Amino acid sequence: MIPLPTLSRGGLLPDDRKTLTRGSAIWNAALPTQCVVPLHQHAGAAAEAVVAVGDRVREGMLIGRAVGRNSAHVHAPIPGVVTAIRSGEVYPGRPSACVVIDLEGEFDRLGKPLAPAEWQQRSARDLLRNLRECGVVGMAGGGIPADNKYTIPRGVEIEHLIVNGAESEPYLTATHRLMLEKPAEILEGARIAAHIVGARRVTIAVGRDKRDAVAAFRRLVRERGLPFSVRAVSLAYPAGDEKLLIRELVGREVPAGRLPIDLRVIVSSVATIHAVYEAIAFGKPVVERVVTVAGSMVRTPSNVKVRIGTPVGALLAECGGLIDTPARLVLGGPMMGYTVADMATPITKTTTGVLALGTDEVNDGERTPCIGCGRCIRVCPVGLEPVTLVKMLERDRPGDAAAAGLADCRECGCCSYVCPSHIPLTETLVQGRRRNGGGAP
Amino acid sequence: MSDSTSRSESGTRAPFLHEPPQVHERISSGEILATSLFCLLPAAAWGTRIFGLRAALVLVTAVLSSLVVEAIIVRLFRARFHPVEAEAAPGWHAAFVGLVIGMMMPPAVPLGIVIGATVFAIGVAKWTFGGISGIWLHPALTAWVFLAYSWPDAMTRWTAPATLPPDGVTSATALGLLRVAAERGEVVIGGLAGYLGRVGVPRTALDAAVTGWFNEVVSGRFATALPAGYVDLFLGNHPGAIGETSVALLLLGSVVLFGRRIITWEIPTAFFLSFASLTWVFGGQPYGAGLFSGDVLFHLLTGSVVFAMFFIATDPSCAPRTASGQIVFGLGAGALTVLFRRYSGGAEGVTGALLVMNILTPAINQLFRPRRYGWSLRASR
Ligand code: SF4
Ligand code: SF4
């Protein structure tokens, strides 16, 4: 990647390796013989199992009930028998109870075309309940339940809904393909979401590298006379970051310590909006998602629609298997995703990609002393000085780090990516935030 | 069933667990320092060509002695340094500093002085501050100043380049000759290089040929003429420190540094702009000319301005880290160079200028910070 010309607002021009999968149309993975469905795939508390070992489940049946507002329902992605409920590791590296379902029996819903249901006459409350029943969460990684996010506090009027199709993480093209192949569904989903939150304006934000998707949206918007604007946004990573996207599209910054909703803006990813559409139009729960499978160690890099709970190993096998042992096996994008230790780790609602990276992609290196080059400062999209913050944290001065803006870090990974001394800057900052109570952005 | 898939029993494990980011730019600090060193080599090689094996000996001594000094220090005081610093030494950084020191030396300098310089640079300027990440005064500059005050004679004894026809005055540097002229109150007309020619500095045949061609083909059309001597200065056919004479080869090295994004435009550009504009405005005064008559080209081609601009001022460990800070740093360095060239004791001003800017760097870093997202007045409404 090339650091952008200085004096800019940080970010990287990625050697994005999206060409691996950009042209690969989404195909359906074969059904896994076994699904390991975590009960904790979202932001809040884990769902509570409502099935027991030996139970027979149908596809889309509720198997985990949300506990609390920020939690979400979990549904059976395949029909079959519950053979175990056990603990397992789930992205991003936290343990969760998992319901293990062995494939068995009939399909009674997917694969059969349905007419989309009418939703215009339904109230926001009704639609929100529908989203909750279907377990829709932020599917680009955040995992915040859609119904929670779209429940607008009394007295707040949402001005602007932004549909985030920037997809600036390298490698990932699942959103790009989804936008190309389902633009009408996404626009309809955006209408639904705008209806729920009462947004006056809707902007579809698409990364500038995805010209075809921009064109597809523009054409549809024109044909249907929708009052949406379609904007090509920066392709520098991390343009897709919620706060940065707002700066680019709205021209204002979310004040430190506040939320987008304080600017009367709501940002939802394309994948989430698509899930919203399916939930409202067909009552379909989130039991599958589109995942980019890429990296130089994957024989056939692809975009695959895969059932939640499919083990990573099974998905990779579908993509022709691995060429060699990967240096890192990553769930999510290369900049913000986590490695997994185990091929049995399941795909969850928030898994955007599965990457099997070779050593020449990872470019690991020994940590050497800071040479003061300032690259980390130049790339930081929110104007922090990672080198200074890390020095403070390493010298055990978290108070100073907090004053210098630790809480503003977007955990985007840019600083670690460019540091020629291979200092784990982002890693240290993330740990510092966890330890000192600076929660997720 | 659950046993066979439980993660602890599963056979396939990826070798490591890592936090994001999972990928890294293909670059390392070692590579950056090594590339900087290699980019200096053409100019260094030129120095050995015009000043002979003696210059090569100085360069080799400087580099080796830096490495040895660093190895000894790290060995003796390992426990006092950050493990990461100690682990990385001796390395490319010491070699680079050593080469820079060598290139700043007069060709005939006694080798003991060279070794003393590296001890001072590596031992004092680098490791008393804990290694690379603690440096705040450029080690090579610090060492040079130390030498210039301790052995002023040895540091100003110059050698005539082998490429010039032998002549009595050629072993004085161009800047030195001009300083004498200014002190005597001589009036210099017709370009500073022209003055050098009149006081007997010889020129190569190449200079005459290129200047003639240039005046015929290019500048004749604009009713100006390139005086003789500049081509020699540009190519490096003049006395001076081992590595600073050939502006052409230094520029060549800097092109690689820019291309590999090891240095960025801010410092050199700001340095050039302030140096050139101030030289143009005030540079003519010492020689009896008025304002706006300075000979910018001459001042750029002599002394170590170009060398310092690309290879010393840009040294990341002692320059500001933000773009705006670097611009201020460059502007200040250029202005101070002009000032020191005119008023300081030695003919060379760039060393002192950069050291002053080094001292100011922590303050610049404090003042010129990146703007933080979400903290502006506009953002908070
Ligand atoms: S991880 Fe944090 S500090 Fe590093 S570049 Fe991103 S926002 Fe800046
Ligand atoms: S990028 Fe790395 S080496 Fe450069 S200033 Fe930041 S921490 Fe230091």
Write the layout of secondary structure elements.
The complex is a heterodimer of chains A (441) and B (381).
Chain A: E1 2-3, E2 12-13, E3 27-28, E4 34-38, E5 48-49, E6 56-57, E7 62-65, E8 74-75, E9 80-90, E10 94-103, H1 124-133, H2 146-150, E11 160-165, H3 174-181, H4 183-197, E12 201-207, H5 211-224, E13 228-233, H6 242-250, E14 265-269, H7 270-282, E15 288-294, E16 302-307, H8 312-318, E17 328-331, E18 338-339, E19 353-357, H9 359-362, H10 375-379, H11 386-394, H12 398-403, H13 414-418, H14 425-435
Parallel strand pairs in A: 3-16, 11-12, 11-14, 12-13, 15-19
Antiparallel strand pairs in A: 1-2, 4-10, 5-7, 6-9, 7-8, 9-10, 15-16, 17-18, 17-19
Helix pairs in contact in A: 3-5, 4-7, 11-14
Chain B: H1 2-5, H2 29-51, H3 53-77, H4 83-87, H5 92-103, H6 111-126, H7 139-150, H8 174-184, H9 192-198, H10 205-217, H11 230-235, H12 247-259, H13 266-282, H14 296-301, H15 305-312, H16 323-343, H17 350-367
Account of the protein in words:
With 441 residues, chain A is α/β, with parallel strands linked by helices. Chain A has three domains: 28-111 and 287-360, no CATH class; 112-282, NADH-ubiquinone oxidoreductase 51kDa subunit (Rossmann fold, 3-Layer(aba) Sandwich); 375-435, no CATH class. Helices cover 27% and strands 20% of the residues of chain A. Chain A has helices at 124-133, 146-150, 174-181, 183-197, 211-224, 242-250, 270-282, 312-318, 359-362, 375-379, 386-394, 398-403, 414-418, 425-435, and strands at residues 2-3, 12-13, 27-28, 34-38, 48-49, 56-57, 62-65, 74-75, 80-90, 94-103, 160-165, 201-207, 228-233, 265-269, 288-294, 302-307, 328-331, 338-339, 353-357. In chain A, the strands form five sheets. Chain A has a six-stranded mixed beta sheet, sandwiched between helices. Chain A has a four-stranded antiparallel beta sheet with strand order 4-10-9-6, with no helix packed on it. A four-stranded parallel beta sheet of chain A has the order 13-12-11-14, with helices on both faces. The longest helix of chain A has 15 residues, at 183-197. The two termini of chain A are 25 Å apart. Mean pLDDT of chain A is 91; it is low at 1-8. Chain B folds into two domains: 29-156, no CATH class; 174-366, no CATH class. Chain B is 57% helix and 0% strand. Chain B has helices spanning 2-5, 29-51, 53-77, 83-87, 92-103, 111-126, 139-150, 174-184, 192-198, 205-217, 230-235, 247-259, 266-282, 296-301, 305-312, 323-343, 350-367. Chain B is globular. Chains A and B meet through β1, β9, α6, β17 and β18 of A and α2, α4 and α16 of B. Residues 370-376, 387, 418-421, 423, 425 of chain A line the site of one iron/sulfur cluster (SF4).
